[in-house]
Fold each of these.
Amino acid sequence: MEKIEQTIDDRLFRQAMGSFASGVTVITTKSNGDIHGMTANAFMSISLQPKLIAISVDHRAKMLEHIREAKKFAVNILSDQQKEMSMYFAGQLKEKRAISFEELQGVPVLPKSATSIACQLYNEHEAGDHTIFIGEVLGITLEKEAPLVFHGGQYKKIVPAIN
């Protein structure tokens, strides 16, 4: 296979990836007795049998070692009422807050999320400056909430299309 090289600057790449509307998630885990969370939009389903999902974590993120330590994590797909949770776990809100968590299959989850998915670490793969964690689904909570969406560097809500 012929390798094609093209210089694409980081800003152009980010803008291109930002043109893909995605849901907003907070990844949660518990290691060394403490609960940890990180906002992420790099999440996808992988397999139905077994039920597998994937998340991508930057090598500089503290969450990388927390997931490796815990061997379990949850993906909390945020509702359109949880923008502040996204901002908090992305480090955009600096003041400390008391965050309430529930538990799903022994993994901390954020209440009132549109969906929470608890996983056992199935595998991991290094890919560039990130590690892709594949999780085997242990449990799911599903609420009837609209998801929070991120597109073009902004939070958005889903509005029904006019037919």
Amino acid sequence: MDKKFQCGRFEFSLDRPIVMGIINVTPDSFSDGGDYYSIDSAIERAHNMINEGVDILDIGGESSRPGSDRISSSEELKRLLPVIESLKDCGVPLSIDTYKPDIMKHAIDMNVDMINDICGFTRAGALEVVAPSNCGLCVMYMNGDISNMHDCFPKMDVVEESKIFFTKQLNNLLTCSPSIKNRVVLDPGLGFGKTIEQNYYMINHLEELRVFSCPLMVGVSRKSMIGKIVDRSVTDRLCSSVSCALISVMYGANIVRVHDVAETVDSLKILSAIKQGIFL
């Protein structure tokens, strides 16, 4: 029987890769900052992604790019709530990309399906907010914290450090709610407090990160780890980003978080056909 991932109102079989589409309702995200800052443009982009075959929509109201400013909860809610309200019945799960427990609470009260926390639910109160819900939970490993992650790199084996963190946080979550395990996804946090070499090393060792048999999510889309290798600008990393997502799936990723939904969906269909040996 295929392992399932409970994501709020939705349940996914993990017999195929899941595509999460990124919508940043921000003026300053590294790739699409300002593109979907207005409510109407964010909603339009979401519906385009749905038509392109997205499985989950991941909506963020605060940038985590290097040098970005932290914003207040009230400002983050101002950006997020109208988009959530407009898309809550769009037919695909809504994920909210936030590390603030009060934002998580508002989102859960609006019946969002997933919380994607770059801090891995380490902030005070986060575990208590999410545990009683039925939301999917993405636990990301960030070396350092929001203020210093881009200048703070793991001293020991980054895979071992990730496993230690994931094991600790999963045990914390299970203490809050023993039934939570089928709602948890693990994200190695590529680009968050790791060197370029460490990022690619983690992809090469993804299966070792599958703590407690949890599914794995990888987000590489348009990141500097891509640009450093191919020497291309953020707007010219489509092929390399899709390639890295595809290879991540081959190395064990169950969910890929991407900007370019249609291209990723098509590439994964080809991978599936090859694996199944389809003869037409």
Amino acid sequence: MKKLIKLFFCFTGLALSACQNDPDYKAVRQQVLDQHDKIMMDGEKAMTFKMKLDTLAMSALAKFKQQQPSLDTTAELQQLKTLSKKLNDADERMNDWMHNFKTDVDGKTNAEAVSYFNGEQVKIRQLDSIYKMVLKESADYLKRFNVKTDTSMKTMDHMKM
């Protein structure tokens, strides 16, 4: 009798697990949207860093040259341009993703919608990696010149160098 009860519970468990559906597309879509919102904050930080890099290139680098005559301003300007371009590229990739992202799944089955949003989740995670990499690279560069990389509202009001 105990074997029959165990067997019944095993089959019940298997039957229940076999009947589980794909996750609801709305849950997967929300994960993508939540990740997007998080990355948008990185996008704002990237634009703040870009402004600081531009300020460094336009005026502050000359001051550092006076303090450190051996500073190769040509090489530094090239590095500033490279970092600025990487920040712009990350921002453009994010804009492209947002332009192409569709929240409307009319005409798709739940499984098709889940598949679409899972694909978008991969893309948004790649964007997150790109932002993290370029933000770290930019922050490290700015710190070399004692530029504060804190992006709180207080710092955004006045650029501190």
Amino acid sequence: MVEQAERTAAQDASRIRSHIRSHIRTVQDWPQPGVAFRDITPLLSAPASLRLIVDALVARYRDQRVAHFAGLEARGFILAPLLAYELGAGFIPVRKQGKLPYRTLSQSYDLEYGQATLEVHVDACAPGERVVLIDDLIATGGTMLAARTLLERLGGEVLEGGAIIDLPALGGSARLRAAGLPLFTLCDF
């Protein structure tokens, strides 16, 4: 029975990976020359695809007693509130500098094509609350590391970083794991 369940889970994971890969659009030279942008909007525009992604992520976090899903600007805002709703958790927006209306904490970081600063409200989570970081993909890992730093400064317990896609060639997932952040992604690209 256990072997059958493991086979079924592996088949489901393979089906999800294949489905995701077939629905990702690659946009060359965006947002700047030399960058191959992995666009998830075709994946999200199909109701069955969106349901597939949300169900897979909900299954991952169902039994982890997550207090908040922190959505990383901007595409993490699409998934994190859906997960929060499905699992009875809260949503934390992790925004680019200057976008939040209340007092914030800030953290600068490097991107694969520049530098940026993230902010979070000073009351986004309480000490000891369990938080999962959510984004569309992991590239260099800078955004997720900055978000983790912010939430840990507030006393949050960051359980994991979750995303639809890992771009392992850019080194972000290795960098995040080396920094002690567990990761869960639905597929590599």
